Amino acid sequence: MLSEEMISALIQKTDSKILLLVMDGLGGLSVGGKSELETAVTPNLDALVKRSVLGLADPVAPGITPGSGPGHLAIFGYDPVKYQIGRGVLEALGVDLDMTDRDVAARGNFCTIDADDVITDRRAGRIATSLNEKLCVKLSNQIPTIEDVQIIIRPGKEHRFTVLFRGDGLDDHLTDADPQKEGMKRIPTLPLEPAARRTAGVVNQFLDRVKAILHDDHPANAAVLRGFAKYPAIPHMDRRFGLRTAAIATYPMYRGLAKLVGMDVLKTGDTFSDEIRTVREHFAEYDFFYLHYKKTDSYGEDGNFEMKVKSIEEVDRYIPELLALGPDVFAITGDHSSPSALKAHSWHPSPFLLCSKYCGVDVATRFTERECARGVLGKFHAVDEMTLMLANALKLKKFGA
Amino acid sequence: MLSEEMISALIQKTDSKILLLVMDGLGGLSVGGKSELETAVTPNLDALVKRSVLGLADPVAPGITPGSGPGHLAIFGYDPVKYQIGRGVLEALGVDLDMTDRDVAARGNFCTIDADDVITDRRAGRIATSLNEKLCVKLSNQIPTIEDVQIIIRPGKEHRFTVLFRGDGLDDHLTDADPQKEGMKRIPTLPLEPAARRTAGVVNQFLDRVKAILHDDHPANAAVLRGFAKYPAIPHMDRRFGLRTAAIATYPMYRGLAKLVGMDVLKTGDTFSDEIRTVREHFAEYDFFYLHYKKTDSYGEDGNFEMKVKSIEEVDRYIPELLALGPDVFAITGDHSSPSALKAHSWHPSPFLLCSKYCGVDVATRFTERECARGVLGKFHAVDEMTLMLANALKLKKFGA
Q1: pLDDT in the model for residue B303
Q2: pTM recorded for the entire structure
Q3: Which residue, A110, A116, B24, B148, is most buried by CB atoms nearer than 10 A?
Q4: ipTM of the complex
Q5: Chain B residues with beta carbon closer than 8 angstroms to that of A1
Q6: Is A255:A209 a contact under the CB 8 Å cutoff?
Q7: Do the beta carbons of residue A228 and residue A104 sit within 8 Å?
Q8: Sheet holding B378-381, edge to edge
Q9: What are residue B107's DSSP bridge partners?
């Protein structure tokens, strides 16, 4: 396998443009004989397939269900096993928190404890998000700093929140301050390395302060924290691939993942139509566009087969508009599968379509799981999608003489 | 993945014979709906497919365009990322220079410099090959040695030539003595390691001598050198696979690559018919024959779709003659693709066909890119072709009990 450095050494800059559409959680499963993609009426995708090549990509490895982080990193050409992103960081990205390299992020739950500090409900009865927001304001006001460490708290949905500990010399080698089970006492975080001792102290002071402040807020009368993580230093796409890259996404998590690999995150609206307009407005400025469509995953995770089908059909209607932008390479895939039948992310490989002047032709006739399985790209690792896109954009020199 | 040693440990010698036909740059791209292979009329290949298995092989990795060196090494069972061959060595092989382990090879260009030693034309106006030959004789006569290092100069085409520096203790950890741009001064080579200091001194003396000797030979009044490389020590095929191997090729580069892995290079004529006669004459003496056909690549690189089609049809006519030799395993593939549409090597995987008594049967109906994509061998790494050929020749024992 070529190392990252070997691939970087092959990069040549050209004027060509790559447009990558990620339909989140795209792959599905057959229910009564047809998957979501097979059920959807997609005249524009069907026409596109005639001049594209198809395949099925494993985001991580056969049988491994990826989170959104590994799923996206693979598509961006980053080995998701090498570049593992801490849970706390993903949470922070998901609530649109800008992280610095002085931060340790953690994922928090409000929880219910009894008089003996025993956790009786790890989710505090799934309190309303509006209450969560109020509690986060209260905590933010009362705990602006601990020692010289700044505390940044951001509410999530229901009982979930994110904390950033911002200060010099913080370390994320910490155990979870969360017994992960009900009926057990709250536990402090422990340093896994001597360098993390001070951070552990700050975190544990924070949790004790939270408990004191929320004393009368039953059922949300304490908190647990887990997934402590610093912002990872990942080589950016401009350095690795010589690309000016732009991300267009309506959800914070995907904007955050794009920022992690050095993409410019473009301001856009709430709809797919807004996103496409944003691509159009900036088309001259970048070489690579990552365009994210969320609904395929949302409906998959809801188990809503019919609406996942409809969301695929929505994307299909916009295909001519995307092609009209004139990308030299146009690719469509998912970061992972989210079959309605499973109501969750799954391990099934992602359908992948690539269209370029030099992509060749395929025997596959539709952009579906089964047709992709017999596509000329075969079954491959999603991390190779980036080299395939770069090759088709004529941005890679020959390896060896 | 099995290591080289693990595969070697499985080798068992049998009387079976493997014939590998490499159609250089075989894979192509559809123009108006059909690729070169799809357009060619190939009754003999079509008949062969009925008792063969097919697949598509990536010489290096998806999206990576291989040079001839990596492309061939992979087919011979050598990981092309592990065994990288320096540019200078490939040049030397290409002009039929016999290298020893005391040599450092470099690729040279005659160039034009002005009075300030600034390069005004990196290719000296692409001088005629005949002039190049005269200049090389002149330099050879006047610079037979530098210190105790023997200088061996061999002309290439137009402005290109190859130099071997032959002596004890030479080292190839050297920077290019080539600014790679016009409008810049000539630069000396620099040692990248202390052990290469003396070699750098010899190379730089050589370049200064060349400049002095060519003073009145404008436009070819100086030279640049790059790709310094020693002859690599690659474990030979007899040791790795227990095979007596023979190479039959009309071009020096391919004979050189075969020699690199320890094949006996058989003397042959200029035509494919000559090559086949050579195989026949030596059929009793070897276990493995590498037969190289060049024209598919030449026409692909010329962008001559029609002639690439005709060269495929030429090979087709010789298939019965090759089968009449009675190889136990007959395989056909390319070292890389060279689609006429790209006029260059490309990243597209190579069609692969394998016929043996034990290969099984396929659903694929023709030896084309699309049919190979649905072949039972699937999409695989070209480096695995060797084990597939050995297995079908019953030359591999069981792994584990």
Answers
A1: 96
A2: 0.91
A3: A110
A4: 0.90
A5: 61, 81
A6: no
A7: yes
A8: B264-265, B245-248, B288-293, B18-23, B329-333, B350-356, B53-58, B378-381
A9: B162, B226
